[in-house]
Amino acid sequence: MTDTLTDSRVGSLELHSTMPFHPVVDPCAPVSSQDVASDDAAASRAAVLVDALRRMRRGIEIPQELADAQDSLERRIRAHLSRGKVAVTLTDNRYTMISVRRLPKERRYEVRLHHMFADADPVITRALARYVADNDPEASRVLGEFIDQNNDHVRGRARRAPVQVIFTAGEHHDLRDIFDELNARYFGDKIEAAITWGARTGKPKRRNSIKMGSYAVEDRLIRIHRSLDRAFVPRFFVAWIVFHEMLHQVHDVQVKNGRREFHTKAFMSDEAQFEQYEEARLWERSHLDAILTY
Questions:
Q1: CB–CB of 189/218 below 8 Å?
Q2: DSSP per position, 119-160
Q3: Separation of CA 48 from chain center
Q4: Which residues contact 72 (CB under 8 A, 6 or more apart)?
Q5: pLDDT 10s digit of each residue in the chain, 294 long?
Q6: How far is the C-alpha of 92 from the C-alpha of 114, rounded, in Å?
Q7: SS3 89
Q8: What fold, for 5-23+171-292?
Q9: Where does residue 188 fall: left (phi above 0), alpha (psi -120 to 50 degrees), or beta otherwise?
Q10: With contact defined as beta carbons under 8 Å apart, do 147 and 131 qualify?
C-alpha cells in the first residue's frame, strides 16, 4: 500500500529526513462482500452506538447501551488472553480504527476501538487479543480485512480509506498523555488528530538528519520519530515537538510567490507560546548529535 502521507504531509521542525515514515501496522487486504441482511443489521447497530457516543459527549455518564457494548467486548477479548486485563473504549473516530496502549508493568491493555468491533465474531475477537497482546502479524491481517469489509460504516461511502493502527505508549514517553495535556492547556481540547510513534529502525547509526515529527492533513495523523523515545530525552522536548505538529491543524498552509509556506509568522508566533520553548530549543542544540544517532 502506498504511504498516504506522501502528498498530505505538511511542514515539520527543521531536522528533516529523506527517510520515509511508515505506519507501525498498515493492513491492506482485498474487500470481501457481505449480504444485505448483515449490512442492515450492522448499520442499525452502528446507528445505536453512534447516538450513544454523541449523547456521552453532551453529558457526563456513559449511556448504558455503550457501557454494555464495551463490557461485552472486553469479556470476549479477555477470553482469548492468556494473561493480563483489557479495558475497551468504543469510539466513532473516522481516522483511527484501533489504538493500543500496553502497560506491561500493570499487566493491562487499554484499547480504543471503532464501534464496528462491538459485535465482532470470535474470529475477530481472537485476532484482537493476539494483536493487543503480541502484535501478531497474522492477527493484523485479519483485522485489516475486517476493517475493509466494514469501511462503509466509517465514512458513509464506499471509497476505501487508509487505516492506521496507533501506538502511543513508548518505552519512556506516552504520546497520548502528552497530546491530551497539550490539547487541554493550549487548544481548549479542539485539536482532533491521532498521534503515534513512527516505525522502529534497524541498528543505531549516525544520521545526517531526521524528521522529528510530521502532520498528515488528510489523515489528521501526527507521527513522532522513535529517536525521541529514549531516557535522555526530556518530556518537555517531546511535548514541544508534539505541540509544533498540533499547530499545523490550526494554521493553514499559505502560498507565497508560488511556493507553499508551512511556518508562517503567525505559526512561529504561536509556537513561541509553548511554556518551555527556549529551553527546548537550547536542549535541541546541545543534544543534536545524540538525537541523530539512532
A1: no
A2: T--HHHHHHHHHHHHH--HHHHHHHHHHHHHTTHHHHSSSS-
A3: 25
A4: 118
A5: 222 222 233 444 434 333 333 333 222 223 233 333 344 444 555 666 667 677 766 665 777 888 888 899 999 999 999 888 999 998 887 777 888 888 888 888 999 998 889 888 888 999 999 988 888 888 888 888 888 777 765 655 444 445 566 678 888 898 988 999 999 999 998 988 888 888 777 677 777 787 888 888 767 889 899 899 999 999 999 999 999 999 998 887 777 776 777 888 899 999 999 999 999 999 999 998 888 888
A6: 6
A7: strand
A8: Zincin-like (3.30.2010)
A9: left
A10: no
Which residues, at least 6 apart from 201, have a Cβ–Cβ distance to it below 8 Å?
A: 19, 226, 294
Question: Per-domain residue ranges for the chain?
Answer: 5-23+171-292, 36-161
Which cell goes with 213?
Answer: 515529527
Q: Could you tell me the CA-to-CA distances from 3 to 25, 137, 230, 239, 242 in Å, in that order? A: 12, 19, 26, 26, 21
- Which region, left, alpha or beta, applies to residue 156 given φ > 0 means left and ψ of -120 to 50 means alpha? left
Q: What distance separates the 2 farthest-apart alpha carbons in the chain?
A: 62
pTM over 0.90: no
Q: Which helix (H) or strand (E) holds 38?
A: helix 36-58
